[in-house]
Amino acid sequence: MTWTKLGDEFSDECANTGLSDAAYRTHVEAIAWLYRVERMDLHIPKHLLRRFVGSEQWESGVRTLLALDWWRDRGDHYQVVHHEDVIRQSIAAQQAKRTRDKRAQADKRRRDDRKAQEVSDEVSADVIPDTARQTDKHAVRGSADLPTDPRFWKQPHETEAQNPPAAAPASPPPPASFIHAQPQTERDHLFSRPMPGRCSECEFHVETQGHRDGCSRRATA
User: What does pTM read for this prediction?
Assistant: First the structure.
């Protein structure tokens, strides 16, 4: 940002000289343009003058300024002479301030970056040991800790195929007392087909009960 600085004596000098409104406005607008473009040589190209002066009598104002030797005609440009020391010092001051501001901003960014890095280092120093402890706690077991029995790694269907479950033992046939206790129709149903392991005469289970007393097959057994 630039600003136009005029000394306290500027307005008094213009009034004491009897500048017209056109000359005063043209002079002030020209000085403001010099501050804006920071022309240390105080040169104003003639073809640019009409772009920033607002007075309708600006040409008359320029002639007045030249007559007072506040401006000088340098061929293709005008040079401002009145108040030139103040203008140059003010332009140099605003350039120096801009340089200081840039340097201060750069220093602040560097300080902020260092603080951010310090915070990041502190956080990393706190987080890394915790992470290491968690990694040790939940580490995957090494090969030395794994079972060596190949049966451990077999799938369930492989284990069942190689070691089929034992067949359930056959239930023993009902005892003869149970058979005799049934009604005749039930007994006929039970003996409608041969019962393995029973004597065809006494109906005892030979392997577990032997033969009934008086069974003719008992003597032959």
Answer: 0.49
